[in-house]
Amino acid sequence: MSFWEYVGSRHAQLLTDTYQHASAVFQCMVLATVLGVALGVATYRSEWAGALATMTTATILTIPSLAMIGLLIPIVGLGVAPTVVALTLYGLLPVVRNAIVGLRGVDPALVDAAKGIGMSRTARLFRVELPLAWPPILTGIRVATQMLMGIAAIAAFASGPGLGNEIFRGIASLGSANALNQVLSGTLGIVVLALLFDAAYVLIGRLTISRGIRA
Predict the structure, then answer these.
(1) DSSP assignment of the chain
(2) What residues does the ABC transmembrane type-1 domain cover (predicted)?
């Protein structure tokens, strides 16, 4: 059976796996973005706190993904839970680091001007600092998403959702007629998803970043 014949015969399952893969990455990136930006906001004013946040999230990223999921299984069980926890933790570093860099890069004169017209600290954060720091934050989100696309395939080890199941089935049946087709379909699906997500981030950047900031 050729690759395209295999895809045609398994298109329903492949579409389901693709949707689950994209959904898992998207939801985990939302969580990682909220947590990462919150950590950045909480630590960017202090050198040691920012360094601690960056070092901690960087340490998490050094843990092999298979080991991370293996360690989580006794705690949260199989399926979606270890996938969500692992992907969210892995997605933190680029977001935290870029949030800190972006917030520290805001011109202090603009913050002082906002303070001078009576803006509260919260208003300055949400109306001045975060909008100006958004371009590097978005870059961190893009980098994290590309990483999670590949890491999410390991979720199949813990009976998680996504295209990793196709890859693992192919590896487990190496030597069979469709083993290569299974691995290839899962891999190409992840590559296509990564490209689509990145294109979506480019569009989001064009819609949310003003021309003055982009220049």
Answers:
(1) --HHHHHHHTHHHHHHHHHHHHHHHHHHHHHHHHHHHHHHHHHTT-HHHHHHHHHHHHHHHHS-HHHHHHHHHHHH-SSHHHHHHHHHHHTHHHHHHHHHHHHHTS-HHHHHHHHHTT--HHHHIIIIIHHHHHHHHHHHHHHHHHHHHHHGGGGGGGT-SSTHHHHHHHHHTTTSTTHHHHHHHHHHHHHHHHHHHHHHHHHHHHHHS-HHHH-
(2) 18-201
